[in-house]
């Protein structure tokens, strides 16, 4: 889950919220998608560092990334045990800044299925941070790719109405704990719990966010019931003779 998110606030606001030394300049992004470069905050020589990474974790032992599944989310319940993520969970934890993320509520089945997009954001529209893991993948030709995936856990009461899982959100007072490679396992486990129900607000959106190519403010426009397509009309049952009381109906 959580395959799309947003960073719409200016670079200065992010730098103030996460206290890193770099001064990056970047445009607002309303529809960030997997495999794209994303901002990450990690520890470098004991200080917070801003760096861009590919959203899509590649373990160090992978020989050909094209043959490896795209990993954008890592389950918190198994991250410490799975060989692909164990070392990163111990030594390479990081933060993925955001000011909104999207989730789709699936309703119905088959051809009648409907996916309703929702935006989750803080009521004050400020930044928050996903817990994440990073890894540097070394290509056989000597090149390197820094990659990242967000950590997910059980949904809180608010999110559970839409999806059973949610990104793990690290509170600002726990940034240092999550980033510290020497943090105690018990302290980390405490951070993997669902967020309070009132941390984020939920807003149903229109269909613009469904297309990755759309990356402007329009993707966060609230859903307008007047613009929703009318449900398909039910076929009229008519008798072969055209008599309204004929029990043998026909679609033709």
The percent range for strand residues is: 25-35%
The termini sit apart by 44 Å
Radius of gyration: 23 Å
Structural class: mainly beta
Number of DSSP E strands: 14
Low-confidence stretches: 238-252
Major sheet: size, sense and barrel closure? 7 strands, mixed
Helix content: 10-25%
Average predicted confidence as pLDDT: 89
**Could you state the order of secondary-structure elements as H and E?**
EHEEEEHEEEEEHEHHEEE
Description:
Residues 238-252 have low confidence and may be disordered. The longest helix is centred in the N-terminal third of the chain and has 8 residues, at 11-18. The strands form 3 sheets. Strands 3, 4, 5, 6, 9, 10 and 11 form a 7-stranded mixed beta sheet that branches. Strand 9 (128-138) and strand 10 (144-154) form a beta hairpin. The chain is mainly β and 252 residues long. The two termini are 44 Å apart. The protein has 5 helices and 14 strands.
Short description:
Helices cover 12% and strands 33% of the residues. The protein is built from five helices and 14 strands.
